[in-house]
Design brief:
The protein has two helices and no strands. It is mainly alpha-helical.
Length: about 60
């Protein structure tokens, strides 16, 4: 039902969001979303590096 959005549907959604937020707030929202995605990617890579360091150390010395 909602699994596939074609180009026309995406265009309509973009126009509606543009009308609601306005061009300046839409640009700010896009910038904030980009920062959040970048921060999420950095944070998701950090535990892997920490797990690798802690796995080398044996418990109890």
């Amino acid at each position: 039902m909602f699994g596939r959005l074609g180009p026309l549907e995406l265009f309509v959604i973009l126009i509606i969001v543009l009308l609601i937020l306005g061009p300046q707030r839409l640009a700010g929202a896009g910038k904030a979303l980009g920062r959040a995605i970048g921060e999420f990617r950095r944070a998701s890579k950090e535990p892997d590096a920490e797990d690798g360091k802690s796995a080398d150390q044996k418990p109890g010395g």
